[in-house]
Structure formats: structure tokens, C-alpha cells
Q: What sequence folds into this?
């Protein structure tokens, strides 16, 4: 299912970053609802999702939450 959302996943450079995260990274567990990065912050991390799902959220002017992207197990995050 994830292949339909993240078409870049088959680009060869993705393998480099996936391997880098797995070999050089630090395992971190995020609780449901915990932020990876927040608007206004500079994101200095990349990550590989070992299990679970990460969703990208945007909020409209009335405060309504909108899911604007998804990352799944076996994919990486770099925003």
C-alpha cells in the first residue's frame, strides 16, 4: 500500500539513507501523537521507521487537523 503514496521510495539514493539510519542512527520510540518536528523548528534529523506509521499534519485557519502525508514501516523521514 505504501508504494502508492511515496513513489520516490524506489530511487537508489533512498537505499543509502535507509542504510545510514540503520547503521549509524540511534533507536528512538515516539509515543502516539508525539511530534517528530514542529512548525517553526529547524529539523536536524532524518529517521527510518522501523515499525508503525508517521503522519504529516497541517492545521487550517480554523484549527481543523488535515493529514497531508504518510510514512510507513520500512520508509524514512527527512523533513
A:
Amino acid at each position: 500500500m505504501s508504494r502508492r503514496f511515496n513513489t520516490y521510495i524506489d530511487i537508489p539514493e533512498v537505499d543509502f539513507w535507509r542504510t545510514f539510519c540503520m547503521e549509524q542512527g540511534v533507536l528512538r520510540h515516539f509515543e502516539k501523537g508525539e511530534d517528530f518536528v514542529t512548525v517553526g523548528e529547524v529539523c536536524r534529523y532524518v529517521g527510518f521507521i522501523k515499525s508503525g506509521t508517521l503522519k504529516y499534519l497541517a492545521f487550517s485557519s480554523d484549527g481543523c487537523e488535515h493529514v497531508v502525508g504518510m510514512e510507513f514501516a520500512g520508509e524514512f523521514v527527512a523533513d
Remarks:
- The helical segments are 2-5, 12-24.
- The two ends are 22 Å apart (CA to CA).
- The longest strand covers residues 65-72.
